Structures are given as structure tokens and as C-alpha cells.
Amino acid sequence: MVGHCAPTPSIVPHPARMLRARLRSYAPSVLISAMPDALALLTTRRSVKPIELVGPAPSAAEIDTILTIAARVPDHGKLVPWRFLVFEGDGRLAAGEKIAAAFRADHPDAKPEHVEMERTRLARAALVVAVVSRAAPHVKIPEWEQVLSAGAAAMNVVLAAHALGYAANWMTEWYAYDRRVLDALGLAPNERIAGFVHIGRPAQPPTDRPRPPLADVVTRFTA
Predict the structure, then answer these.
(1) Stretch 92-107: mean pLDDT, rounded?
(2) Burial 80-102 (b: 16+ CB within 10 A, else e)
(3) What angle do CA 181, 185, 191 make, to 5 degrees?
(4) Structural domains in the chain?
(5) Which residue in 41, 15, 55, 89 sits closest to 202, CA to CA?
(6) Is residue 222 over pLDDT 70?
(7) pLDDT at 127 over 60
(8) Entry pTM
């Protein structure tokens, strides 16, 4: 409408409410304002072990929010070289049966408790999102860039979960590289797992770990 400007979303202190408001009322003007809460979000994120995550799982609406944000990543050529596979409820144990079957095939003498551990790999957290890379040779877009895009999607899953008040852990483990498991989970021959992101509530406040000093990881190019 001529002469009408979309209202700037109200600034509210809770990151999850800010996130939802921006998704509903997205406008370029939002990008002009400083976002100190977003910086706080980024500087407080840390991984929490799946075994230290508890329920309940994110709601259906929250999962949609997480995946919507996960899809907002750099994607050279707009190839969408990734997709998401969601494990929730009984689906976590159903997938675990596939993992346990591959484990038993390789370790026929395994103790029952070890097989059970494999069966519950994806049931340690209330929700698991697998980021599937479907990078493939392309006449213009390097395959490496497509793989990096999948990694960016996985990181966005982690950050979106954190913004909604959850904790997450992006990991792979042996079954992410086992073709029998991938086939059983419905991955195509050219698809790979970029990561399983385990999501839940931290059972206790997470503690941070030392991060590398910038002097150890940053160099500046000079002529």
C-alpha cells in the first residue's frame, strides 16, 4: 500500500519471543537495528551431551520454526543440497532398531546391554534432527560448497533450538557413516549424514569450556 510502512516488531527480552515475532513480521527494516539479544544468543550457545538432555521435546510449531530457520542458509545456485530427517516419539526407537541390527551383524557376540545401547542411540534426547547432505557433481557449483551448505543448515538447527530455550548437540557417531544404516533410514545412494542434532532441555545448567584465543586462530593478510 502506498505510504504505508510495515511496523517494526516490538523488542522483547526473551529470545524465543523475539524470534517468533521476527518470523511473523519480517521486513528489511529489521536488519537495520542492532540486535544485542542475538549476539548474546550466539555467545551463550554451547553443546550439551545427549544423555544430559531431558524432555519434553519441542512442540510441532517449534520444530517447524527450527527447520524454517535451518533452511535459511547460504546455498550457491539455490540447489537445496540438503534435507531434514526428524526422529521423534517412537520413531527414535524404530530407527534405533536399524542401528542395532547393523551393530549385531558386526558383533554377533555382543552383550545384550551393548545392543540396547545402540538401539537407544537416537532416544537419548527428546528430538533428533538429521541433516542429510545430498551434494552431487554440478556443472557450476562445486560439491564442496554444497557440503558446506549442509553444515550451515545443521548449525542453524542448533542455534534455532538454543533461541527457543532448548539445548542441542550436533554429532555423527559410527552409524552416520555406515551404508547399511543409511539405506535403512531411507537415504539415497548419493546422500550422507551431515549430522544428527539431538535436542532437549538441559538437565542442569551447562558449563562453558575454554575457547581458542583469537590470536591462535586469526591472521590478517598483509601485502
Answers:
(1) 98
(2) ebbbbbebbeeebeebbebbbeb
(3) 85
(4) 52-204 (3.40.109.10)
(5) 55
(6) yes
(7) yes
(8) 0.84
Cell 517447524, located at residue? 64
Of the chain, the percentage scoring pLDDT greater than 70 comes to 85
Query: CA–CA separation, 108 vs 100, rounded Å?
Result: 11
pLDDT tens profile 38-92: 999 999 999 999 999 999 999 999 999 999 999 999 999 999 999 999 999 999 9
User: What is residue 12's predicted lDDT score, i.e. its pLDDT?
Assistant: 40
CA distance 166 to 55: 10
Cell readout for 35 is: 540486535
The Cα 213–Cα 223 span in angstroms is: 25
